[in-house]
Design brief:
Blueprint lengths: L1 H28 L3
């Protein structure tokens, strides 16, 4: 069970990291 929880946490962190990268790339593309 602990392994499953750890995997879920890692998946959530990875998804959040991907979202951050996507938003950062969008902000960089948009001329301020």
């Amino acid at each position: 069970m602990l392994v499953d929880v750890h995997a879920l946490r890692l998946r959530l962190v990875a998804r959040r990291h991907v979202d951050l990268n996507r938003t950062r790339s969008a902000l960089c593309r948009r001329p301020s």
